[in-house]
Amino acid sequence: MYPTQVSIYEVGPRDGLQNETLLATSAKVALIDALAAAGVRRIEAGSFVSPKWVPQMADSAAVYQQIHRASHVRYSALTPNLRGFEQAVAVGIDEVAVFTAASESFCQRNIHCSITESLNRFEPIFAAAKQQRIPVRAYVSCVLGCPYEGEIAALQVAAVSKTLIDMGAYQVSLGDTIGVGTPLKAQRMLAAVNNQVPIAQLALHFHDTYGQALANVLACLDSGISTIDSAVAGLGGCPYAKGASGNLATEDLVYLLHGLGIDTSIDLLQLALAGQQVCQQLGKANHSKVAQALLAR
Ligand code: HMG
Ligand code: MG
């Protein structure tokens, strides 16, 4: 049975914009405010990582300070280590997200340490977050394949996910970083992880490189999953995964869910206009089919 409600976790301002050409801080702020006005309730608005590696996110603190904080939105940020966590807390973030991988090679390329070392780095974040009552989300990348190692065992994904939950994450987002997954594989991977972690603590994060993201969501929806990550206009990719395209477009996800009678709280037209505006500013095509159709009318 499908859920009656799905919580959409919008990653466009972070996952999307981290892999686009530099966008002015004011344009990021306008995007985040427009997403909130469209009814989006969870927005990952930036990351506190090394500006040497991801210059696109170097102004995340300024972005958080300039957005108009809507009371219905939980604003989040990626924090790879305690230093990033402290920076995020200093600007009043609602929640943070740590990130590791199910693939050793990807972990090394992305955050320059092993999976075990990454978990060790997260320990002080979990401790500080618990003390300050800040919810911590966790990402596991490469759950359906790795650009360096190929196939990744679902049991490995499950083990890393379980460890993160045991450490204190309220939710683990399962990332198909390079978008190679197909529906049956996605279902099987989710079932394997769900053997170790309750479905209510899992989220799905599909990139759309092979055009399978929406099909993967549909295949997984009757598992009881109720949080899906997506990026407005299908923005972005991953700087450490060559060829990876953007996330599933939020507009396409909302259209699918509303068509199934599933509530999202989001006004689709307002969302599409927000995505179109940022695409114009970036000078790039809008990757949402739904936005293209809606805005052509
Ligand atoms: P490190 O281990 O300290 O070493 O950083 P490093 O050599 O990688 O970087 C060192 C430099 O980063 C030093 O600066 C540090 O001071 C600085 P330098 O002396 O060279 O000038 N540094 C920091 N700067 C700002 N904020 C910080 C911070 N920490 C260290 N918090 C680190 C490890 C993870 C920080 C670094 O490698 C990094 O920032 N990597 C970028 C990771 C990243 O943002 N990847 C993309 C996001 S993950 C993703 O997209 C996947 C996801 O969407 C899910 C999916 O699709 O699968 C989440
Ligand atoms: Mg991603």
Secondary structure category: alpha/beta
Q: Can you tell me the overall shape?
A: globular
Multimeric organization: single chain
* Order of strands, widest sheet: 1-2-3-4-5-6-7-8
Determine the mean pLDDT: 96
Q: What does the main sheet amount to?
A: 8 strands, parallel, barrel
The unique ligands bound to this protein are: 3-hydroxy-3-methylglutaryl-coenzyme A, magnesium ion
In whole angstroms, the N-to-C terminal distance is 34 Å
User: What portion of residues belong to β-strands?
Assistant: 5-15%
Helix and strand element order:
EHHEHEHEHHEHEHEHEHHH
Task: Count every helix, treating DSSP H or I runs of 4 or more residues as helices.
Answer: 12
Number of strands: 8
Give the radius of gyration.
17 Å
- Share in helix: 40-55%
Low-confidence stretches: none
Task: Give a concise summary.
This protein is 43% helix and 14% strand.
Notes on the structure:
- The structure is a single chain.
- The protein has 297 residues and is an alpha/beta fold.
- It contains twelve helices and eight strands.
- α4 links the parallel β3 (74-78) and β4.
- It binds 3-hydroxy-3-methylglutaryl-coenzyme A and magnesium ion.
- 3-hydroxy-3-methylglutaryl-coenzyme A binds at residues 15, 18, 47-50, 52-54, 78, 80-81, 83-84, 99, 110-112, 139, 141, 175, 177, 205, 207, 238, 240.
